[in-house]
Amino acid sequence: MFLKTRALLMMLAAGLGGCGVGGTSAPAGTTAPTDDGWVGTWGAALHQPAAVDNQSFRMIVHPTLAAPRIRIRFANFYGDAPVTFEAIHAALREAGPAIVAGSDRSVTFNGVDSVTVPVGGEAISDPVDLAVAVGDDVAVSFYVATPAQLSQHGSSTAVSYIASGNHTDEASGTSYTGSGTSWWGLVGIDAERADALGTLVALGDSITDGNSPPDVNNRWPDYFATRLQDAGIAVGVLNAGIGANQVTQDTNFLGSSQAAVTRFDRDVLQRPAVKWLVLFEGTNDLAQGITADAVYAGLQDIAQRARGQGIHVIVGTITPRGKDPTWQANPALEEQRVALNDLIRAGVPGDFDQLADFDVALALPSEPSVMAPEYDSGDGLHPGPVGLQRIAAEVPVDALN
User: Fold this and answer.
1) Angle in degrees, CA 363, 314, 19, rounded to 5
2) What's the pTM?
3) 23 pLDDT more than 60
4) Taking a C-beta distance cutoff of 8 angstroms, is the pair 136, 217 a contact?
5) How far apart are CA 284 and CA 327, in angstroms?
6) What is the DSSP code string of 9-51?
7) Three-class secondary structure of residue 348 per DSSP
8) How much of the chain exceeds pLDDT 70, in percent?
């Protein structure tokens, strides 16, 4: 009944409107120290290139675990040539592009203060003696001297800063007169935590990636990380959501991104100490006419590959969007959403390890095709802050202990 093989899914990704997004999921050129004692504390799914030249970048990120030391990860998944990151620094952010006095640390790779990352590759820094507490923002600065294509995560709902020339050691940040809501080149931060249980990755679309005002840190994985912190569960949470992403096919809508079945190896398996996966997407596939059976086959494929690596898979049902104009114009889409959710529920336990029934959690009881008003951001598709908190509350945590 279903498309069960990875080969068929790759054909699906290429043939059903796929855009042939560049990049690779292979760890070519990766420099990877052992993960002993290290877990992911922050991450982003890079998905498209951006042209840069003689610029400094100061990325602002929000770790999910406290740690006495961190490591920095840079990637060149979508470049057309090797990229050299120079004069790399990490510090605690004070406000805007300014850093906390005395917190600035130089970052080295194999003892060198720069690193050249080949196309398709990823580089992991030496340990950085920067203590990070829960609630801190970390500023990661680097300089790119010559024209390059930096892999980026667009629409990050976080403001990062740009300066002309090399200003990576500037504490005041006054030279950082440019800004944007993207993360450039930075793919992850690891935390040294011998007591940590592991890393959880949230693989999804814009509902996971976030669609709130910048620097609020109210994506559902943020709320989930806070939930774990409050419960004393030492697990790092990485957000691998991309706006408009699909399970089965590449897309160029709201920026290019590879299908989840294609990017899974890079965005999940290449992260450190991953033990849990929250798999929550498919609504964008349905909106593009992909059938419930085909989307489910993609979810099956991802789950099978994850479980083959010892990763516990929590699968989420697709949330209501009956007030979304796209759904209202085509009633058959709701039929497919219901069919897909029925398949997901029937697949636990079996194809997946646990269920997070986001559909039931967010639905208006009297009209299950519609998101309850208190959870709706106003567009009928994306949950607002209360809805995102409800999603975070629905993810089961018993397996994390």
Assistant:
1) 85
2) 0.91
3) no
4) no
5) 11
6) HHHHHHHSS-------SS-TT-B----TTEEEEEE----EEEE
7) coil
8) 91
Tell me what the mean pLDDT of segment 72-81 comes to: 97
- Strands lying side by side in the sheet with 354-356: 235-241, 198-204, 274-280, 312-316, 354-356
pLDDT digit string, tens, across residues 387-396: 999 999 999 9
Phi, psi of 359 (to 5 degrees): -60, -55
Burial class (CB in 10 A: 0-12, 13-18, 19+), 230: exposed
- Round to whole Å and give the CA distance between 313 and 191: 23
**Amino acid occupying residue 244:** A
**Residue keyed to tokens 């340990």:** 127
DSSP designation for 81: S
Cα distance between residue 153 and residue 385, in whole Å = 22
Neighbours of 76 (CB within 10 A): 31
What's the confidence (pLDDT) of residue 34? 44
Position 17 scores a pLDDT of: 33
Neighbours of 145 (CB within 10 A): 17
